[in-house]
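**User:**
Everyone, produce one record:

**Assistant:**
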Amino acid sequence: MLDLRFVVDNRARVEEGLGARGHVLSEAEAGVWTQDTERRALIVRVEELRHRQKVCGEEIARKGKAKEDSTALKAEMKGVADEIKALEASLEEVEARLKDVLLTLPNLPDASVPVGRDEKANVEVRKVGEPRRFAFTPKPHWDLGPELGIVDFERAARMSGSRFAVLWDDGARLERALIQLMLELQGGRGYREIIPPYIVTAETLTGTGQLPKFEGDLFKTRAGERDVYLIPTAEVPLTNLHREEILDAGALPLKYVAFTPCFRSEAGSYGKDVRGLIRQHQFHKVELVKLTTPETSMAELEGMVADAEEVLKRLELPYRVVLLCTGDMGFSSAKTYDIEVWLPGQDAYREISSCSNCGDFQARRAVLRYRPDAKGKPRFVHTLNGSGLAVGRTLVAVLENYQQEDGSVIIPTALRPYMGGRERIVKRA
């Protein structure tokens, strides 16, 4: 959530930043500045009346001691008290409206983010590894997996509908091997492993920016008498671990890693990536989250990107890093790098990780603060999140990049310890 004072005091900068993201202010959002003027006027009037109460209270007390009549003053104070009550109710309504509006505004892009409307304006930062040259036409994973008998879309569709998959035998084991590699790698790079809840409250999702704006993208259910949601990413519970806490500056940065299933309705994306494992309603992901100080957050973002890249380096998969433009970033992000892996079966680089610095945007929503020193005033932390990596998409990359002409798939060297030392996946007899 944006800081109201900053929004009010920097209207031109806010409108420019939102415009760069392609966000057109609604009538309610454009009313922030008028609403804040009303809010400030109400505060001034309430303070004036409270001052009047104090002065008259002292006068009533003096008159009482002097046995003088204070009936008129008491009647005035009754009117003042009633007016204060009415003004405070109005102030509460205005502040609630302002908060509701602020919850709909996306984060402002960092000055280092390129301005552009869509992915065409994204900037390639670096390319690592050369795509393999095949002596045959490489197949996409949606053909490879079923032919090997390790990916089953038809049975999943009968059970759950479209955009689900069943992984059999070596498919399931390969996914588990990837998860183990990712968790052990990031644990060795200083991340603390967490198993968080997979069901969270609306308040938790509001803290990271999924609510109220993106409820249609979520799976909602009931737990007793309350509405709860399946997590769309482990970013949600990990970022909220310290909600409403004040952290010690000496403990920062906090670095967390978690493997979880993720659940997304993918509302509005129908017709896109309908084949295969790229865009599923249920998928696995290893997520990285950092909580740090404003002064170090951009350096920590670069470090997080390097942490995610290391997985692809260990798997010897070609990839590139792309800096997203203003119009292509997520709602809560101030700066985002996408890591895109090469998929020969699709003859394209596809996103496998997205690493973002959200600044204090999520911290304001979740009330995540730290104290710079023992006597210092609490400040909001900066939150960062990134995939380390999306497991299903990594499995896709392994299948497509390591496929052989006979239909088998070579197991990357880094995964063999988790695959019983085996070197190849072949069709089950």
